[in-house]
Amino acid sequence: MSGVLHPTGPEPARTYWVRRGVLVAVILLLAVGVVLAVANLTKAAVATAPPPPLPAGNPAASPTPTASGASTPASAAPTPGPSTSRASSTPVSSPPAAASPSASASAQPGPSATVVGTPDCRPAELQVKLAGDRRLSVGENTTFTVSLVNAGRLTCLTSVTAANFELKVYSGKDRIWSSRDCAKTLAPFDKKLAAKGVVAWKMTWDGERSVAGTSCRRGTDKLRGGTYWATAQLKGADPVQVRMIIG
Question: Are 219 and 211 in contact (CB under 8 A)?
């Protein structure tokens, strides 16, 4: 024991202590190397070990290897039920199929229906107006102004002819005059009317009786002074009147 603590020999004691320190350091380095080697072998064994077997009733939960080599558990497959759609059963790894041009075209809404041309005006949406002299002499000519107003919300086409329009003059129940007895008093026309649009024209009464079924033939009976009514009537629309005093 004294030889360990007090080395003896032909060389100085310091030399023996240096040798002993070097030996101890070498032994320590060897021990550390052995520990590190054992640890690396243990990690390699764990990394290469096969995964533990899964329970027989859950095959869908098997781990899926990733690019880094680690294993990540896959999501459990959904249990199909009445409300499960076919698309939900498609694997996540499969890219969705591209829609064909024909399928995409059929999914697009078709063009909305458009009205070709301008629709005819509804007579019920046309307002007839009539203006003329209120006082006349017997046999005096008078000119009336007739107008139509489109009370609808859309542009429409109105047609005025002797077949659907008449301007007539009455005295009580006595039929005095009608525009249909003289075709030249009304020039037929077609007119496009915007909403609230107005079309107007003039018609002249010669102050005499007319004879039905003739071409502008005057009656032989002379008019007398009194109250007369001029009435403008468009088929399907409300008629309007102007009261005249003739004397």
Answer: yes
First to last CA, the chain: 168
Q: Which candidate, 230, 209, 207, places its Cα nearest to that of 145?
A: 230
Q: How many Cβ atoms from other residues are within 10 Å of residue 199's Cβ?
A: 17
Q: Hunting for tokens 């001029």 — which residue is that?
A: 230
Nearest CA among 163, 181, 176 for reference residue 229: 176
| Residue 100 token pair | 């064909």
Which pLDDT belongs to residue 220? 85
Q: What is the pLDDT of residue 146?
A: 98
Distance of CA 79 to CAs 76, 148, 188, 239, Å? Answer: 9, 73, 78, 76
Q: What is the mean pLDDT of each run of 10 residues along the chain (247 residues)?
A: 59 76 87 83 63 49 44 45 42 45 41 62 95 94 96 95 96 94 93 96 95 85 93 96 95
Secondary structure in 3-state letters for the chain:
CHHHHCCCCCCCHHHHHHHHHHHHHHHHHHHHHHHHHHHHHHHHHHHHCCCCCCCCCCHHHCEEECCCCCEEECCCCCCCCCCCCCHHHCCCCCCCCCCCHHHHHHHCCCCCCCCCCCCECCHHHEEEEEECCCEECCCCCEEEEEEEEECCCCCEEEEECCCCEEEEEEECCEEEEEHHHCHHHCCCEEEEECCCCEEEEEEEECCCCECCCCCCCECCCCCCCEEEEEEEEECCCCCEEEEEEEC
